[in-house]
Design goal:
Blueprint (H helix, E strand, L loop, with lengths): L1 E7 L4 E8 L4 E5 L6 H10 L2 E6 L11 H8 L2 E3 L18 E3 L4 E6 L8 E6 L9 E5 L2 E2 L2 E2 L12 H16 L7 E4 L17 E2 H7 L8 H9 L9 H7 L15 E2 L1 H9 L3 E4 L3 H6 L1 E2 L2 E4 L5 H8 L6 E4 L5 H9 L6 E5 L2 H7 L4 E2 L6 H10 L6 E2 L10 E2 L3 E2 L30 E3 L24 H11 L3 E2 L2
Parallel strand pairs: 3-4, 4-5, 9-12, 14-19, 15-17, 15-18, 18-19, 21-23
Antiparallel strand pairs: 1-2, 2-3, 6-7, 7-8, 8-9, 10-11, 12-13, 16-20, 17-24, 22-25
Helix pairs in contact: 3-5, 9-10, 12-13
This protein binds fe (ii) ion.
The site of fe (ii) ion has 7 residues, from loops.
Amino acid sequence: MIFKQYYLACLSHASYLIGDEQSGRAVVVDPQRDVSGYVTDAEAMGVHIERVIETHFHADFLSGHLELAHETGAVISYGDSATPKFPIEPLADGQRLSLGDVVLEIRHTPGHTPESISIVVYEHADDATPYGVLTGDTLFIGDVGRPDLLSSIGVTADELARQLYHSLHTKLLTLPDETKVFPAHGAGSACGKALANETESTIGVQRRTNYALAPMTEDEFVEAVTQGQSVAPLYFAFSAAKNKEWRSLLDEAQPPPALSLERVLQEQARGAVVIDSRDPAEFRAGHLARSINIGLTGRFAEYAGEVIPADQRIVLVALPGSAVEAKLRLARIGFDNVIGSLDDPLRVFHEHPEIVQQSSRLTGDAFVERVRALPDLQIVDVRNPNETESGIVTSAVLVPLPRLGADAEVLDPTRPMPCPEPEHDVRNVQHAGLAGAAAGAVVLVHPPALAGGGDRAGRFADRLALAGLVRAR
Ligand SMILES: [Fe+2]
């Protein structure tokens, strides 16, 4: 049997290629939008991808089922309660798909979404113990899929959580302890709240260690899995809808057109958003006025999807050679509206200082000084509710980042706002020009976690605590 996991760290997304070496037949499960890796691997392994299976309609990325079907002629399959707007071969609960000796068994496991399925993999058709189970977003390592993402379209989190409880107990925990567990997401995913760093486990280990599988009543389970979830990124509803539709196919190698400064300024004046994908330090030193910094190092697409409306036209400012990567990573969440990228940005900034702005970031000490010196300082904490449990800065306004566009009116554009120096992997989104604020660049505040620790974030938090600037929540 061929079994390969693909793990895309920037979206915490796992997909799978499963094949039968003897028959040369293979399937791909939950593919990412750019599918060349699967196609190249299948060729090298001597198998043909004949089917794409989606465990459910993903909300956190735009899946590559249409691209893969186009490239390979594969049929697309979902569980039989899914009704996308393109032809599929639906899969029923209990159905067995033979690839030769390798057999896949479909289990309908609603809960994260109504149409979710899991796929039990048998290396040999007559094996009593499965090799593993692909659990999609039903069961993660250390967590289960959140049931609250569909509340906006009429299915309540409570109903789905109850379905999830039954799916876990009657469809997955009935598998032998040795069965390996292969989820669709790992740590960092907004599809759950406590995902572990591991990308595989076993049913037995999850039975013993996963908080959501501990002995509890259905009501207790509903309570446990609906509490403490982060605010879903803005783009989730868009990507979920787009995954159900016919849409244009991605050409992953095509770089965005190079644009002159004049054209970029024209597009910006017409409402396009300019994303600067360089590192925060480079952005800080000089950037196009009213551009947004979302560094490519990190969860670039997800952060873009948290602050930029899905239908917004986008212009990129990127280092030479990285514009194509920025475009591809936006395409992975379905943001295909990249008009182009500023040609040779460093030369442009050098030659046109009149369009360049700088922004500052503050260390913990500088932040404390600023708070004391400016009594009307406006502090905006954009972390998610589960990140602010250990305390927030006194007088801070709490607006989770995905809500910032909608809730911008709670901010006073006439009052100054600071931006502390964030920890390395703390969300490094900076937003210039928010709400038309005065005094040039306005920068979103991404305070690092206020819990202590020896790292830079911890020192920042300690400094605030020492200065009496932290209040409990
Ligand atoms: Fe999902």
